[in-house]
């Protein structure tokens, strides 16, 4: 599977399985079968209420955890929770995630980003990112981060190309865009 190199030298598959709107049963089955078929990127979130099922699907697949690029997102209600990252890892049944996002710039999103930076330092995340951010929020974050994010996950497709954001990320921040 084709991969890209992030700004921290970690590689990430370019195609993966997203689990938004999947019931726990469907998330578990889809994760297991996608991994068996050769997918190596699985994306979930606290808000999807299927992290436990995704973790079970990874285990059931028989694929070594180190071969799976697992990403998840903290929801704004978790940004001030000191235990949010540990609780996420427990739900997933893993010791670390490959990519940890804050889900959106709402609530105390800067505190949420601080949790990501701590998770990176502590080895609970191999890379960190932001989701659903626009340029104005990225510019604010740039003045405050200790560690630059590796990814921004946003809606992008032929009818909504995110041209300005893509330009901004390419020439200003070196962030990789993950389209959903």
UniProtKB/TrEMBL annotation:
SUPFAM superfamilies cross-referenced by the UniProt entry: NAD(P)-linked oxidoreductase
GO-annotated molecular function: oxidoreductase activity, acting on the CH-OH group of donors, NAD or NADP as acceptor
Record domain NADP-dependent oxidoreductase: where: 15-170
PROSITE patterns reported in the protein's UniProt record: ALDOKETO_REDUCTASE_1, ALDOKETO_REDUCTASE_2
Keywords: NADP, Oxidoreductase
Spans through the membrane: none
Pfam families attached to this UniProt entry: Aldo_ket_red
Keyword Transmembrane helix tagged: no
UniProt-listed InterPro entries: AKR (IPR020471), Aldo/ket_reductase_CS (IPR018170), NAD(P)_OxRdtase_dom_sf (IPR036812), NADP_OxRdtase_dom (IPR023210)
Entry-linked PANTHER family: 2,5-DIKETO-D-GLUCONIC ACID REDUCTASE (PTHR43827), NADP-DEPENDENT OXIDOREDUCTASE DOMAIN-CONTAINING PROTEIN (PTHR43827:SF3)
Stated family: Belongs to the aldo/keto reductase family.
Protein known as: Aldo/keto reductase
